[in-house]
Amino acid sequence: AERVVFTVEGRNQTHAAGMWANTDAKNRIEAGEVEFNVSSTGAGAANGMYAGTYESYDKGPGTNTITAGKVSMVVESDSSTAYGMKAESGASGLSAGTNTITSEGALEVDIQLLSSGVGMWATNDGGYNKIIGNSSAGTSDKINVGGGMYTDSQGKNLIQTGSGNDVVSIQGIQGAGNTVSTGAGDDAITIN
User: Fold this and answer.
1) Under the phi-then-psi rule, with left for phi > 0, alpha for psi from -120 to 50, and beta for the rest, what region is 124?
2) Residue 22: closest CA among 65, 55, 58
């Protein structure tokens, strides 16, 4: 299966993102493996995946979708604004963006933050981040979210696994909009 690697560096207050979907943009990646290495120096934020709306009330929000067997993100920002997956609207009343990572079978996701930040942050009028694995008997979804899950302002984060023996590790959960749902297998969930 093919492997796609994104290395992105933002400098001097420039925001950096592996995938950036603003107002009405729809980005899609289909591959065997996807890797993001994203860093930002100065005051700029670093995002593995960013989806939002800024520019117009009459257009839809941005969406990013990855379909792959394995997705890894390493994200770092000098300004301590590092996000694995960030979904928001840019202003009150605008529709918020959606980031999705999914698979046709077992899914492995590893989000690592090398500076302070949030692994999955959904905010501002219903931002939505989704990680959806589809393991079956004899296979495993393996999900690791460094930086944890955070929601506010009607934001939602979802981690959902299939019917295999799945492993989910999350570095903290904050906010009412977070859901972790595992399937019928012998699953292990760690929250630290």
Assistant:
1) left
2) 55
pLDDT per position as a tens digit, 135-173: 999 999 999 999 999 999 889 999 999 999 999 999 999
Calculate the average pLDDT of the chain.
92
Convert the pLDDT of each residue in 75-88 to its tens digit. 999 887 899 999 99
Query: Are 112 and 76 a contacting pair, CB within 8 Å?
Result: no
This prediction has a pTM of: 0.95
Cα torsion through 148, 64, 101, 94, rounded to 10:
50
Cβ-contact 82, 91 below 8 angstroms: no
DSSP string, 60-80: PPPEEEEE-SEEEEEEEETTS
Contact 143, 174 (CB under 8 A): no
Q: Give the single-character DSSP code of 147.
A: T
